[in-house]
Amino acid sequence: MAFSGKAGFIGAGKMGASLIEGIVKGGLLAADKVLVSDIDGAKVEALAKELGIAPSDSPGATVGGADVVFIAVKPDQIAGIAAELKAAWPGRKPVFVSIMAGVKTARIKELIDVPAAVIRVMPNVACLIAQGVTGIATDKAATQEINDFVFNVFEKLGGAVWVAEEKLDTVTAVSGSGPAYVFMFIEALTDAGVKLGLDRKTAGRLAVRTVAGAALMAEQSDVDTLELRARVSSPGGTTVAATSKLETLGFRGVVIEAVEAAYKRSVELSK
């Protein structure tokens, strides 16, 4: 059964705006069923003009008028609006969807101090161009209809996977921070091309398209990356020479250690 209620957004920054656009342009809800509030009224006005969404006067008004409320503010801002969310509770009992990194469900419920269902999500920056991936941890109190709606929202922005909440720190380390690792690899690949005689624009173009194409092949292929790598590694050839050097220098181990460092930091920040 498709979700037919209203969705509210507290926060209309880049990620919040991307979610709103995905909902409206993706046909998940009519624009007039999306309520949006933000401390910067200009952002709400711009979305209303572009998409036709319904501006909301405040976070409390958003909670009072919606069935699902996306909390898209910075983690340090939730304490400041918690009292207003709590005060609006008698009017309606929405499910909250938090995209705040590091803020656990228990902490959100403690701040709001009402028996709310809270779904936590960990998107990554590529959601801004509808090419992201998001880890979603549901709440048993949320209905299947709402779970499906939330999942479909993030599918519209690239893709989504269900995980247990205790795995969200790992999701943060792998995919939340992951784009930065890939950007760094692109930078290094570009630098190598420049070192070997290419101009930076050409080297950058080759590096970006190589990474994008390889990622798309990995996503669409019916075999794993080990097999894909074998298919482009001729015995005694250039690719084998390069990958052997990467293994010798500990490339795989360095990546694993980096992700583990991000994981540990995510755990620290969520305490």
Commentary on this structure:
It is a single chain. This protein is of the alpha/beta class and 271 residues long. The protein folds into two domains: 7-168, Rossmann fold (3-Layer(aba) Sandwich), CATH 3.40.50; 176-269, Orthogonal Bundle (ProC C-terminal domain-like fold). It has twelve helices and eight strands. It has an eight-stranded mixed beta sheet, sandwiched between helices. Strand 4, helix 4 (78-88) and strand 5 (95-98) form a beta-alpha-beta unit.
Residues in helices, as a percent range: 40-55%
Q: Give the strand line-up of the largest sheet.
A: 3-2-1-4-5-6-7-8
- Give me the CATH fold name of the largest domain: Rossmann fold
The structural class is alpha/beta
Can you identify the CATH class of the largest domain? Alpha Beta
* Distance between the ends: 37 Å
From the spread of the alpha carbons, the general shape counts as: elongated
**How would a textbook summarize the main sheet?**
8 strands, mixed
Q: Please, what is the oligomeric state?
A: single chain
Mean pLDDT: 94
Topology (SSEs and partners):
Blueprint: E1 7-10, H1 14-25, E2 34-37, H2 41-51, E3 54-55, H3 59-65, E4 68-71, H4 78-88, E5 95-98, H5 105-112, E6 118-122, E7 134-137, H6 144-156, E8 160-162, H7 168-176, H8 178-195, H9 200-220, H10 225-231, H11 238-248, H12 251-269
Parallel strand pairs: 1-2, 1-4, 2-3, 4-5, 5-6, 7-8
Antiparallel strand pairs: 6-7
Helix pairs in contact: 3-4, 7-12, 8-9
